[in-house]
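Project outcomes to date are best conveyed with an example. Our students and postdoctoral researchers have been running inverse folding experiments weekly, and each run begins with a structure described purely in tokens. The record below, which covers 304 residues, was selected by the lab manager from last quarter's runs and is presented without edits.
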């Protein structure tokens, strides 16, 4: 869990993924020598802050978004949401601007509902603020801000340890409208002919998806994947004996939305651990679901 803790502490709200991109590249270069197979690393200005790791002769791509939710400083001590963070008065927010480090408190105007901050000075407009990272680990759970999607990134990096054939794609902007998967998918399809994907992301605990019962295979959210592909994944999961759950939602989305709308015949399926207290400083995931997620990805990347 030390890697996950480190990932959660790196501030990388949508649009400013560069710090986490650097962290991931450093991690890959430091640890790839211990992996069973060596990837080609593709990370240059063609792909902005995104990263591609290409192993062997890939058949399937795993997409994990680097960015998180947060807030942007506006004018007059106002804040604007980045993505869809939960907002409660008193949340601790941190960041940096031209005057130094920031450790402030979220405020909410009782009459207008306008978001703001309490701090001893004005913060430079355009500064990004993120939740303070209070990482809590027990024998059975981990709890922190930004498990969505640092846990998806953790899963992808751990998957690299044993992966022989496949592509790991670290994307940007997912929490605030997307945009990077479109050019990543185009490059992957045209260069490698890969057109099937798994979305390494975190979903919600609901009345039908419970903590500790395995990661969730999503049959649909606001979008609907191709049934034939999802059925293949379900069959592989069932044969593996790895605990998992089936999710059916009518809202929400992921990097899959850009694959669904791509000008190429991409198949996709969201497979991820469920969490409680979504988009708050207190996101909570059961370790059994983390284990299930990684184990299922290892099998799926061999079998698909």
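After processing, the design step wrote out the following sequence:
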């Amino acid at each position: 869990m030390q890697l996950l803790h480190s990932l959660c502490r790196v501030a990388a709200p949508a649009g400013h993924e560069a710090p986490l991109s650097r962290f991931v590249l450093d991690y890959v270069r430091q640890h790839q020598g211990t992996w069973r197979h060596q990837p080609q690393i593709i990370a240059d200005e063609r792909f902005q802050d995104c990263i591609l790791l290409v192993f062997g002769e890939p058949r399937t791509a795993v997409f994990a978004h680097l960015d998180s939710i947060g807030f942007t400083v506006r004018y007059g001590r106002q804040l604007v949401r980045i993505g869809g963070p939960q907002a409660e008065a008193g949340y601790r927010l941190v960041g940096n601007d031209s005057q130094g480090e920031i450790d402030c408190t979220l405020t909410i105007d009782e009459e207008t509902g306008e978001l703001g901050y309490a701090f001893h000075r004005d913060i430079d407009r355009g500064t990004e603020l993120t939740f303070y990272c209070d990482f809590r680990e027990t024998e059975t759970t981990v709890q922190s801000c930004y498990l969505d999607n640092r846990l998806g990134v953790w899963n992808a990096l751990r998957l690299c340890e044993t992966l022989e054939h496949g592509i790991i794609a670290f994307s940007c902007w997912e929490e605030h409208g997307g945009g990077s998967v479109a050019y990543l998918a185009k490059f992957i399809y045209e260069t490698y002919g890969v057109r099937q994907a798994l979305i390494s992301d975190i979903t919600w605990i609901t009345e039908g998806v419970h903590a500790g019962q395995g990661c969730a295979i999503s049959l649909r959210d606001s979008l609907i994947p191709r049934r034939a592909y999802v059925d293949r994944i379900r069959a592989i999961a069932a044969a593996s004996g790895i605990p998992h759950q089936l999710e059916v939602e009518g809202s929400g989305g992921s990097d899959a939305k850009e694959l669904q709308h791509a000008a190429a015949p991409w198949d996709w399926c969201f497979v991820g651990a469920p969490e409680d207290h979504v988009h708050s400083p207190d996101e909570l995931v059961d370790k059994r679901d983390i284990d299930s997620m990684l184990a299922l990805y290892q099998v799926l990347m061999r079998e698909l």
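The two ends are 28 Å apart (CA to CA). The mean pLDDT is 97. The training component of this project remains on track.
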